[in-house]
Each structure stands twice: as structure tokens, then as C-alpha cells.
Design goal:
α2 packs parallel to α8 (161-169). β4 (103-109), α6 and β5 (128-137) form a beta-alpha-beta unit. The chain has a single domain (8-169), classed as Isochorismatase-like (Rossmann fold, 3-Layer(aba) Sandwich). The protein is an alpha/beta fold. A six-stranded parallel sheet has the order 3-2-1-4-5-6. The N and C termini lie far apart (31 Å). It has nine helices and six strands, in the order βααβααβαβαβαβαα. The radius of gyration is 15 Å and the shape is globular.
Length: 185
Amino acid sequence: MNKFLLQAEDCAVMLIDIQEKLFAAMDERFRSMLIRNCRILIEASQTLDMPIVVTEQYPKGMGGTIPEIEEHIRGTHRYEKLYFSCYRDPAIRDRTDSLGRNTVIVAGMETHVCVFQTVIDLLMAGYRVVVASDAVSSRRELDREEAMREMRSAGALIYSTEMIAFMLLEKAGTAQFKRLAPFFK
């Protein structure tokens, strides 16, 4: 397997803590981009039969998943957590390990806290990790940039959502491509 290419049958998607109160605190420049690109990842996961893991950090205090994402993942189990790293939560770790996928595509918030710690733990557990660079956000751009730099230096692949989607699709003209094509206009 080429370590830079993605194949849908080897991938799972993890959406980390895209919750109401946290989202409201994010840098405004990234909010619409985060929603758009998370929706693309959700649609790609559904179209290409990739499992999706959705987490919520202390939802009693941070609120639930934002409505713009929630409406597209109805029926998907939400894993409530207190650990910043998703992979340190036993239920999330067990679910991730049970999927039989070697690659985890990560999106969510905050880049320098829960996303960063999850990525490091996934790498340490032997997963290949892809961070959707335009589907992660932090309250401050400097924190986001530093986390992206450190995740790359730790071994994560940092790809844009469109890079991920087109790599997973592999070619035009398929039913899957036609289903996702409207997102790329």
C-alpha cells in the first residue's frame, strides 16, 4: 500500500466534538468551512461505506453536535467522553479498534486539544492518520497552526477535504462520484 494514498475500504472517519458551545467559540473565519467540509466527509463515508465515529466532549456542558452536522448523521451513535483524546476513552478505543480499518480520517475541534491528542494516540497505536486540514478548527489560529505542524511532524498526513474525497473516489463517472460531485461546485 502506498502510504500517501487512501482507499475507502481501509478508512474510517472520526468527527471530534463538533458541539454547540464549542462551535460558537471558534474563529468565525473557519465555521462555515468546517461545516461544509465535515458534511463532505460524512457524505463520503456514507457513499463509500466507511464507518464513522462521532464524539462529544461532556455534552451536558458543551451541548450536543451542532444541527448543521446532526441532521446528516442521524442514527449514528455519539460517544460521550471526558478524556481529551478520543482514543483514551475505552468505548471509543474499542469501537475504533473493532472497525478493522488501518486509517482514520480525523475532523473536528479543537485542533490543538482533542484533535491533536487523539491523532497522537492513534499514531502511537499504529494507525495511519489523516487530518482533514480544512475540517478542523480552534478558537485561535496560532493554536490551530501549531497543532497542524506538530501532527505532521509526528507522522500524520495533512490533506484538504477535497484531496481526501477525490482520492477515495478514485475516478469520475461512477455513481459515488455523481453523488458527491455537487459538493465540489
